[in-house]
Amino acid sequence: MIKRRVRTPLRTHTRYEERRQEIQVRLTAQRILSAHLKPKAAEVFWADIDLDLTEAHLHQLDLTNCRVRAAQFSGAKFAVNAKFDGAEFAEDVSFIAAKFTGGATFHGATFAGERAWFVGANFAGHVQFGEAEFAGDTMFSGAKFAGGEFIRAVFSGTKFAGGATFVRAEFAGDATFIRAEFAGDAKFDGATFAGNMEFGGNAAPIKAGILEEMELGEVFGGREFSEIFGDMDFGEKRGVSPGKVRWDYDV
Questions:
Q1: pTM for this prediction
Q2: How far is it, in rounded angstroms, from Cα 46 to Cα 32?
Q3: Selected residue with higher pLDDT from 188 and 64
Q4: Which end of the chain is more exposed for a tag (fewer CB within 10 A), N or C?
Q5: Is residue 13 included in any domain, yes or no?
Q6: Could you tell me if residue 29 is inside a domain?
């Protein structure tokens, strides 16, 4: 019943009142689902659930502090904001080709499976993966991150225990990887950054006009520049030399 409700596309050519009621039914189904996925509510918690919401149409989904075993969101459409803060995924999770029309927050989320796939995902709003932990391989290949005022891709303090692949990812706005940890192979081949890109352990943004150079060894364990970034495009504002990333903050 819940799965049928959230998988049905919202009708766009209905009268206002009918659409409002349809959204309310969808929100109620999502709240019921969320309530059964919170470990703290032991009496109603559905343990060891595999969540399959492939191609679902979700409206203001909030799975904050929820726990599931495996999760499938491939091709899903997330309207308004989607919240996964503090969520726990015990096994593999897929957001392949998922579309987020608003913000997407995964702050402090735990991905304990062998794979977390966001290949081809489209993020139209602010993206927050700060303090998230990925135990296995993580793939953001071909993912698109929007830019704009108050819109950025945040991976501050994110821990990648396995491989982290951002091959051909597109960052239209600012992206920050401050204090991020890459324990496995990291790949940014062909990725494009139109805004500011932040790496390193500094806790505060660099002031305008200050040119910074950072040895890749600080973040990537001394691996060669070409091994990680390949033909990555930093845009006209970036200066790149072998073994170093150099950027000019102008915000």
A1: 0.78
A2: 11
A3: 64
A4: N
A5: no
A6: no
